Amino acid sequence: MRAGPFNRQHYSNPKVDGPLLAALRDFDADRRVGLLRQALAALDEDTGVIPVFYPRFNWAGRKNYVRFTPGNAFGHTNAVFTDPV
After folding, report:
1. Which residues contact 19 (CB under 8 A, 6 or more apart)?
2. If you average pLDDT over every residue of the chain, what do you get?
3. What radius of gyration, in Å, describes the C-alpha atoms of the chain?
4. Cα–Cα distance measured from residue 11 to residue 81, given in angstroms and rounded to the nearest whole number
5. Which is deepest, 44, 66, 76, 80, by most CB within 10 Å?
């Protein structure tokens, strides 16, 4: 399952992905917990990628087209925090 906004390394392992996808489709809470435990056990056995850094992406917008609202107390910028004017 290489999709998702937080899977920047495109991590995929069938032993992890299979139970996770099955848990998303199952309505029985006990079976979901079992599937999630199975996925976590497989993840624990696998050595994934540990990111050392995340690259920063530059972005810009003209003041008369875009309004920026800082998304956190640190004032970090991200295009997600912009609105059209």
Report:
1. 35, 36, 38, 39, 42
2. 79
3. 19
4. 27
5. 66
